[in-house]
Amino acid sequence: MGWIADQMPGLIENGSIYTHGEAFYLYALAVAGQVDKCFDELTRVLPSNLVQEISTAPRQQQSNFTVGPDHQDFGQQYFSNFTGSVPWFRRVIEHLLGLYPDFDTLVVKPSVPAVWQDYEICKKWRNHKIRFVYQNNPDKQPALTMNGRTYQERIPLSELLPGRVNEIRFTEKNC
Question: If you average pLDDT over residues 2-30, what whole number do you get?
C-alpha cells in the first residue's frame, strides 16, 4: 500500500499544502523563464500569506506542510521550522533578483517579474560589501556596471574591491 495510504486525508503527502513540492515547482518556473507565474505563486505560498486566521505557526516560519482542506485541522501547521524547502525558496528569490554567487564569480542575471520596476540589494559576499541597483528603463540600453566598469553576466571575485561598497548597476530595457 505504501506511505500515503497510512496518512489521513489532508496530512503530509496525502492532500496537504506540501512545501517541498511547491518549492521545487517554483524553482522550475523561475529557471524556465516563467517569472511572472513564479512570482504570483511564490507570493501565495509564503508563510505570511497562508490561512492566518486558523494557522498555528508564526508568520515568519515555514513548515514542511500546512494541513489540507480534507482534514478537520485545515490550515494548521504541526511542525514549525521543520522543512528543507527554505533553501529552495531562497534560490527562487535569488534567481528572480538575479544576484547570486558562483565559485569565483558573482552572477548578475535578473529574471524580473513584470510588476518590478526597480529594486536594490545590499549584501556581503566573501567579506565584500555589495550594493546592487536594478532599474527597468525602456529609454536606456541594457547595461551591467560595477564601480563604473562594464561587465557581461559575471563579475570575477578578484575585481571586487575590499574595504568599500562595490556598486553594481543593472539597467534592463523591458517594454
Answer: 83
